């Protein structure tokens, strides 16, 4: 792991995670970094990083072994969202083969909630419309989730503010302004990040193709680098300037300066 100082531009090496991970969920709570998912052995644990001591420790076993999951944090809760079921306890070839079909997608529209202070898992939640979660982030007390349904996208908000112990209302909101008839091929990837009261959605890989391609025509849709901005106050989307250069499979993060 590396630490980048945004003021000085200096990059320093930090302690590595206890378990190697790939495509895992991560978020920051109370000045500490939490990670979950991302491998057979790693997927069974939740780790916490303390930047003051430069140390990692396992703080809990995971409810589900997820791969390709996303992370968000609101009001003391770490959300582990979406991803695939990566199989049994040892993650061997037999268990991976057993989940190669539709069972591998059983976690794609669900999320697990970990209370950092109580060191306890809360009741898991499921996106009402189903589908496959392709982007998620936290903004102003809500978790915003973008789900794919093969030929369309749905966009949801989850009220994560803990009102005396009660929270968790879902609301379907206005979807991103993409072409009316759009096909999301298997290579399309999104990344998103919350900035004040806005959610910035960035297409970091693949191409959004319109249905003309299905009729044999070579017309291409929107290329990677598309930037869309959702205003959580007005509930409206706007188009931002496209990325001049795309880091494929890249993730986004904001830093308060």
Automatic annotation (TrEMBL):
Stored PANTHER family: KELCH MOTIF FAMILY PROTEIN, EXPRESSED (PTHR46344:SF16), OS02G0202900 PROTEIN (PTHR46344)
Protein name: F-box/kelch-repeat protein
Source superkingdom: Eukaryota
Keyword presence, Manganese: no
Keyword flag Repeat: yes
Keywords: Kelch repeat, Repeat
